[in-house]
Amino acid sequence: MKLSDDFFERMKIILKDEYNSFVESLKLDRAKGIRVNTLKLSLEEFKEISPFSSLEPIPWEERGFYIKDDKPGKHPYHQAGLYYIQEPSAMAVVPALNIMPEDKVLDLCAAPGGKSTQAACYLNSKGLLVCNEIEPKRAKILSENIERMGIKNAVVTNNSPRELEKVFKGYFDKIIVDAPCSGEGMFKKEEAAIQDWSVENVEGCAVRQREILESAANMLKAGGYIVYSTCTFSFEENEETIDYFLKKHKEFELINIEKNFGFKSGLYEYFDNENLARAVRLFPHRLKGEGHFIALLRKNSGEDFSYTPLKSNVKKNELKDYYIFLTENLNIEIEENFYLTGENLYSFPKNLCTLKGLKVLRTGIHLGSFKKNRFEPNHALALSIIDRDAKRSVNLSSDSEEIMSYLKGDVIKAKVDDGWCLMLVDGYSIGWGKAVKGVVKNHYPKGLRL
Ligand SMILES: C[S@@+](CC[C@H](N)C(=O)[O-])C[C@H]1O[C@@H](n2cnc3c(N)ncnc32)[C@H](O)[C@@H]1O
After folding, report:
1. Residue ranges around ligand 1 (CB below 6 Å)
2. How does pLDDT run across 431-441, given as a tens digit for each residue?
3. What is the ipTM of this complex?
């Protein structure tokens, strides 16, 4: 696929004497990366069991590693949520936000979930993570990734930024705006980005980004931070968008991001604002990763709002079958913040306000569903607990035929007492099975089977 001449002309203006190195870098294979899910295991543990032929640290994210191997999505550890496949430069955005465990974080343009699942590791199961995606199909994928990574404190919504604003005015401490963009930095990864590229599309994206940032500003607390990022090079979608925003919002300032690891300053020379140098540009000829732009904004003042906390909508007597399930099968107690939608029971994170009017795909951990006279655990519950939380478990080796059979949906034979059992791969939870007389019926979700 041929890149447009207009694109190269524009890159000459952006890069000046670095232009030729940039063009050369486009001929190289793109760097591949994975990020370890430290909600499930430590980096040391991962290094010991890593299925990859090499793990080279990505300098700007301690959980990130370059890998050489193909198909990292096919290994059972991926299904168990031990790592997330992510473009290395994309891993630089969340660290810039300096997330603290008790923060309320919004990921406004979240699918498929790279930044959300990374932010969840920084929150370390504390605080609140709201992951939003406007497109329904992409929101479903986002929700599945939140589930696979075993994230307990996340709410997944499928709304426009404007709809979210109605509920979350001045609510969040930190907001990630990984904006939809013309994707010039992803030409190696996504052929479609080349096909869709045009100057008109760049300009259209810039208009949309301004609207999204506007909503983000309204949902941020005074003292809070927004990290804005794109995977594109155009001025219009990067420095120009930030410059426009800062002119309109005097209550915000741009915070400096360190220029380590080959990061370049924001290209301020073309604007009447030297502060734009505080943003960063990642270029593929300066580091091992694709193109990115990152800007960190702080809101210095703003109105305070009050919220109605979300309350449990379940009475104790409605939970009888759930408690029977818990006593018979688990060694843990999840007894707080129950939320029931239809037959589905969730445990929602603390500090959540009412979500009235929003399209919510996941309100915290999906514990399971009430069937006739019984409670059936959900896949999300399996992925969010560890081996010793379950009364029964079946551990399969990652290189065994049995784990592949399990992931395909077959029954497994195992010496285990009757009842729900947590299925494990090398000790890490991967799904449910239900044992009767040594035969474990498969409860790996049909939509995820190999
Ligand atoms: C760059 S992608 C996000 C990638 C994601 N943050 C990650 O790290 O995996 C941008 C997302 O914004 C969504 N989007 C498109 N139009 C939007 C709009 N008007 N408001 C908010 N999000 C939008 C797209 O569907 C897309 O999923």
Report:
1. 90, 109-115, 133-135, 138, 160-161, 178, 180, 208, 212
2. 999 999 999 99
3. 0.99
